Amino acid sequence: MTRPTVAVWKFASCDGCQLTILDCEDELLQIAAALDLRMFLEAGPEELLDHYDISFVEGSVTTAHDAERIRDIRARSGMLVTIGACATAGGIQALRNSADVAEYAAAVYARPDWIATLATSTPIAEHVTVDLEIRGCPISKHELLATITALLAGRRPPVTSASVCVECKQQGNPCVLVAGGTTCLGPVTHGGCGALCPSFARGCFGCFGPSEAANVPALRVAWRVAGHDDDEFDRALRTFNVEAPAFREGAGKGQA
Q1: Do the bridges between strand 5-10 and strand 52-58 make them parallel or antiparallel, or are there none, so unpaired?
Q2: pTM of the model
Q3: % helix / strand / coil in the chain, to the nearest 5?
Q4: Where are the domains of the chain?
Q5: 248 phi and psi, to 5 degrees?
Q6: How confident is the model over 194-229, as pLDDT tens digits?
Q7: pLDDT for 171-193, tens place per residue?
Q8: Are 31 and 24 in contact, with CB atoms under 8 Å apart?
Q9: Which candidate in 22, 55, 145, 250 could, as Cys together with 216 as Cys, close a disulfide (CB 3.0–4.6 Å)?
Q10: Cβ-proximal residues to 75 (8 Å cutoff; 6+ apart), any chain
């Protein structure tokens, strides 16, 4: 069986999702044996091919050069898979989208005129066709391995559509919001993490982005009942997946 050629690309990001690949540890040798990794700078390989069977892309588009590069990568790729909140929703750096980037650059850099950047941070899907998204900040090792296994077997990758609340019930966790009044985005957040934070009595931070049909206004009301104000709720939405439509549109819509 011919191993599929694979590339892992980085755009604006912290490299955390690429490190998740390397953190597979026990499975890493099997991954290397099953995939023909030709481009993965985080791990070493650097071979620019005309075609890769699968490209994994981490990070958001924040420069004009990024926009050109992702189009070139799309043309070289049979299947393009985005990994992580930056690639799927613009990442935490999308906070710039509602700010004055020029003002920030002037405050941070001695020569802001040397900085070439876009005013926005956008997900890969806004620029090219994406075949599959793996969410998370960072992505789940288990979802990554399940996706690779499915692609190698020629079957549809597993898709989680339930919210974190479902995973909490599967773990037997009491609801941290209802039982303890802890701030939690679990009811509107896409599952995939295995309810990691609530399993340690912490509220969900929304790392995996909005779930399908997320009822953000209803959760705002639940937070109010638990004693939390609208500003606190809006700040929670404006983090890892600030530009995900359900979170972007849900923030700032509190009513007195």
Answers
A1: parallel
A2: 0.92
A3: 45, 15, 40
A4: 5-153, 164-250
A5: -60, -45
A6: 999 999 999 999 999 999 889 999 999 999 999 999
A7: 999 999 999 999 999 999 999 99
A8: yes
A9: 250
A10: none
